[in-house]
Amino acid sequence: MLGHLFQCDPDIRLAGSEIYFDPAEPRKIGIISHGHADHIGRHEHFIATAPTAAFLRTRNGFDLRGTELPFRQPHAVDRSWSVELFPAGHVLGSAMIRVSGPRGSLAYTGDFRLAPSYTAEAAEVPQADAVIMESTYGSGPEWTFPSREELRDQLTTLVRRIVDRGRTAVLLAYSLGKAQETAAMLRDRDVKLVMHPVVAQISGIYESNGIDLGAYEVWGRQSSLFGHPSTLDLRGKAVIVPPHMTREIGRIRNAETIALTGWALRGTRDADHGIPLSDHADFGELVSLAERSRAGIVYVTHGSRRFAEELRRRGIRAEFLRGKPQMRLF
Ligand SMILES: [Zn+2]
Fold this sequence. Notes:
Layout: E1 6-8, E2 12-14, E3 19-21, E4 29-31, E5 45-48, H1 50-60, E6 66-68, E7 75-77, E8 81-87, E9 95-101, E10 104-108, E11 130-134, H2 148-164, E12 168-172, H3 178-185, E13 193-195, H4 197-208, E14 217-218, E15 238-241, H5 246-251, E16 255-260, E17 273-275, H6 283-292, E18 297-301, H7 305-313, E19 318-322
Parallel strand pairs: 3-4, 4-5, 5-6, 10-11, 11-18, 12-15, 12-16, 13-14, 13-15, 16-17, 18-19
Antiparallel strand pairs: 1-2, 2-3, 7-8, 8-9, 9-10
Bound molecules: zinc ion.
Zinc ion binds next to loops.
């Protein structure tokens, strides 16, 4: 148990309430920061932005009930608490959550990125008495990502080099967020793009929210690539496939794989190439959030104890809350 505002056992909830942040177990009220699998669940009642609700229902069932809350609109919960959502810049609809009540205010960042994105809303840092923040890339300043323009040029040059040799560029990108960011980066870049149906389903939600992903083909389930292993000709094209679909990826002929992950800054073992495209904050952005929140105390989660130590060196009161196994390629 930590702090007078919240408890961590290990799901995080407001102290003395049934209001949870991104709980892993089904709960009475779950405030969901964004649509990634490790943040969603089947709760009696969810609170989330409309795009996150669409991802949640697509993945966990259209019967799920909850409140779709626009950004910056206070919403009363359980009489004594008010919830507000702020854009987190991580994926479409991702939110940082602030709850305010008689005992003070608490912000919970979920996953976030302060640097601009092609497909996610620009992040806004909420101010609160206490902050619980992720710290995925918090181990040191060696985790500093190139600008999105630089990454776009790197990606375009690499994809063109592969397709110009008559090969297939296989872009290994998580189906929600990274895949759409990749498509938007290749928009108007004279690259023939194909999406796996799982990616295309999520892309449809992006497009219905006004995000232009450019032109692309979708593999139907009847296609020879994912139906039976014959001869769909993908040479000269770029294909976006989630990285865990190793069986399908193995069937693509003349493939050269590109991993799109922040971890690629340290090299790439699981693909032919790597582009350090991350939807998380880098080290400098993490420090920036802690400072801009003006919180009296910062609780660090989803990363290493070293980031809490780093904040203390900078004069910010900080504690390490809990670690979490990293999911590769997020
Ligand atoms: Zn995430």
